[in-house]
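Severity: low
Component: inverse-folding endpoint
Summary: output formatting inconsistent between runs
Steps to reproduce: submit the following structure tokens with default settings.
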């Protein structure tokens, strides 16, 4: 009995010490400072491919440096740079089985300026037959993982041109896919000559890490997206054209940053902690897609993606919801670590909104990682969502501070390596 009492006493004292450290590092003033900077007019709404988002990236990187965390392995600084490729069609011509192909019969998805293909090029040949789902089948090949000729039945003539959407923005690949609208079902002879103007569009996530002490090859990710909608002079509100995105998602990015600051000071993580501000969430989730490709998903033990925590949830203060709550036991683990506090994590009440699939957790979740988004926004009635009115003045700073502290407390067992959430059944995801 004495041992039990002593253990409980030790647990309470450790909990109190952790809570005290949190209160000195994650403060209302610090939340206000970081969030106020990210959501300031100076950042010009942080639209992808603008000077405003570059300013935001520089600020986040400077904060990471001041916390004493490290760049990701292989990176010289905190910018995880990559590029999207945007091909602009110039011309296409060809022959298939000795018959000339009209330009409108050829759709090349490629990163090559001058693509030349013949039957001797070693391309795999596949078909999209009559009655198939054209776009579902076409998307299987749009990842450019292998050189492919796709013979598309002429029953899809009216929609064939819409396949151009597959090359709107792409990650660089040395592979190409050529869709050909034809009645042919085999390739005996082939010549394709397709020309594009290739535009390279540079992007950067901002990422840092705290190496784990005893489990350095097991990763726990904390994330938020730092991009927003920029400036819109056509849809102004009260003469305001800057979409500051205070809640979406400067709030989540601020939470991620202050968690990095806290864990850097705590120095108690056995697993390696990764902190990342994603770019390009608003235009297709390209930042998280690129980031996810850099990890073996089996090594990622949990992902805390944080989105729009600047307001009270539908249950009031001291609460938040977790998307995809039922898909793993991560939510239950987090709540158990909050025993004795007033904070509660609830399952996502807005399942019809498909939030689990709409944020930066989705890419890793589809690979089986227990990757969830934590949020509070009443998404069905949020008056500021994607509007110029999403400003710092709308944010409940004290409540947001408490949410960040509660995330830190709830994650204790996961970052220590003592608790590991169950994995997502990836076969059940869309």
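Observed output (run 2 of 3):
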């Amino acid at each position: 009995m004495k041992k039990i009492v002593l253990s409980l006493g030790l647990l309470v004292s450790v909990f109190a010490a952790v809570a005290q450290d949190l209160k000195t590092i994650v403060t209302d003033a610090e939340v206000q400072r970081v969030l106020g900077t990210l959501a300031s007019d100076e950042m010009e709404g942080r639209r992808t491919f603008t000077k405003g988002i570059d300013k935001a990236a520089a600020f986040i990187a400077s904060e990471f440096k001041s916390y004493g965390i490290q760049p990701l392995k292989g990176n010289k600084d905190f910018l995880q740079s990559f590029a999207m490729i945007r091909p602009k069609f110039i011309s296409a011509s060809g022959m298939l089985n000795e018959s000339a192909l009209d330009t409108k019969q050829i759709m090349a998805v490629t990163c090559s300026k001058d693509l030349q293909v013949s039957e001797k090029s070693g391309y795999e040949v596949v078909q999209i037959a009559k009655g198939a789902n054209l776009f579902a089948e076409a998307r299987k090949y749009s990842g450019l993982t292998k050189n492919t000729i796709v013979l598309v039945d002429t029953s899809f003539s009216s929609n064939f041109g819409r396949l151009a959407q597959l090359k709107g923005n792409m990650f660089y690949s040395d592979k190409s896919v050529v869709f050909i609208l034809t009645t042919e079902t085999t390739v005996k002879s082939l010549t394709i000559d397709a020309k594009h103007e290739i535009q390279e569009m540079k992007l950067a996530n901002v990422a840092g890490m705290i190496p784990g002490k005893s489990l350095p090859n097991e990763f726990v990710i904390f994330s938020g997206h730092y991009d927003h909608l920029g400036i819109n002079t056509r849809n102004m509100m009260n003469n305001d054209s800057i979409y500051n995105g205070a809640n979406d998602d400067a709030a989540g990015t601020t939470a991620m940053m202050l968690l990095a600051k806290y864990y850097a000071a705590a120095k108690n993580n056995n697993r390696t902690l990764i902190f990342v501000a994603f770019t390009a969430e608003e235009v297709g989730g390209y930042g998280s897609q690129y980031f996810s490709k850099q990890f073996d998903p089996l090594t990622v033990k949990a992902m805390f993606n944080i989105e729009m925590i600047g307001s009270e949830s539908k249950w009031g203060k001291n609460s938040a919801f977790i998307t995809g709550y039922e898909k793993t036991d991560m939510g239950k683990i987090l709540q158990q670590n909050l025993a004795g506090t007033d904070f509660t994590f609830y399952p996502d009440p807005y399942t019809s909104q498909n939030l689990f699939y709409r944020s930066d957790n989705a890419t890793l979740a589809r690979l089986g990682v227990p990757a969830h988004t934590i949020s509070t926004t009443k998404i069905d009635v949020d008056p500021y969502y994607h509007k110029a009115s999403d400003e710092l003045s709308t944010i409940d700073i004290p409540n947001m501070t408490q949410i960040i502290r509660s995330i830190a407390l709830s994650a204790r067992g996961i970052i220590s390596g003592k608790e590991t959430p169950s994995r997502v059944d990836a076969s059940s995801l869309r």
